[in-house]
Amino acid sequence: MPERRPGISGRSEVARRSVLKGGLAAFALAPLLQACGGNGTSSAGGGGTEKIPAPDNPITWDLSKKNPAIESGLRPERGSTLRIYNYADYLSPRMIKDFEKQYGVDIRLSTFNDADEALTKIAAGNLDFDLYFPSYDSLGRLVQADLLRPLNHDYLTNAGNLWPGFRDPWYDRGSRYTVPYTIYSTGIGWRTDKISDDIAALDNPYDCFWDTQYAGNLAILDDWHTAMAMVLLRNGQTNINSTDPDDIAMVRKQMLELQDTMNPKVTISMYTELPAGQYGLCQMWSGDAINTQYYLPKSKSIDIMRYWFPEDGVGEVDNDLVVCLAQGKNPVAAHFFINDLLDEKIAETNFGFTGYQPPLTAFTPETLVSKGYVPENLASAVVTEKAFDVGVPLLQLPAAADAAYHQIWQEFKAGG
């Protein structure tokens, strides 16, 4: 059964995505990149053009000369310390304890509140963090600033459990620096006892966020890029990373209309607030939809919860990563820990705690429902490998477009 502690588990993975794509996180490494140019051929804000990976622009990153991969055949040193830098509650405590017991390694988990803080501390290079869990929209800056250690795949014997498409991803050809961690979609969640319409049956489900009958009864994610991607999807634009001035102007107009007419709650707490009935409708990440089952009042059945993602698959689909930081002092244990994340049984324990699934072949909608992790009425929240063939990801944006979107977000958060 899932490892759960209602009210405690699976919470900060939500904040993780929000801040990795929000605030000034995109510029946190810019001064360092400008100064040194990274280990590649380009720099952020300097004379070159920053490399931005995308499905139609796959990148094979240069291997770091300053921070070479570790040798093969090593074992974690008993009594050593593995330092992990992550959001709180984004790893199963049971998994951590099991690893410590098996290898005699002490794990020290340090947490951060937002990516500005995380990237600034990582760039300082003096905290000796071994593992970090970013999204691919910050990967390029981390690599080009030479802050990562290339992986030695001899240690990653469980990599064959990954979906084939994640063994050589577009954002890191050859998986030189990264291993996929979790996957998730972005859709709409609602309670059928609070919302009379079947949102999934609407001609354009995204329109519900501008439908005045729901004014004051809805929430959107406190995540600038995800929130504005919804506007683009609503208007038939599948490039949710558009830099077109007309698209950006349209996003601004509709975001301010949303704020002015709907008074949405802007939050990252849908996992508790929706089941608690604080509102009936919200923009939502798939893992949080799965987690709602643990926060419903005892008088309510999970049958009232719904999650919609476009049937044609053309919606937002993303994944997170785990990387070895060059500053770490225990890269051997770090490799063993990454490999454990790819073990099917260990990954199942971890999924039971976080609610966000790993991209492993053993995890299918049928198995997750049959094992009791996902109620049948929320099976649409399970992400399939096919979803990444047609879904659209949030990408790192060029500086000018990033600044333009952030300006809109500031206006929206200020109340228009």
The proportion of residues forming helix, as a percent range, comes to: 25-40%
Query: Considering the protein shown, what is the CATH homologous superfamily of the largest domain?
Result: Periplasmic binding protein-like II
Structural class: alpha/beta
Quaternary state of this entry equals: single chain
Q: What's the order of the H and E elements?
A: HHEHEHEHEEHHEHEHEEHHHHH
Instruction: Report the CATH topology name of the largest domain.
Output: D-Maltodextrin-Binding Protein, domain 2
- Rg over alpha carbons: 21 Å
The first-level CATH class name of the largest domain: Alpha Beta
Number of helices: 14
Number of strands: 9
GO molecular function: polyamine binding
Protein name: Spermidine/putrescine ABC transporter substrate-binding protein
InterPro entries: SBP, Sperm_putr-bd
Subcellular location: Periplasm
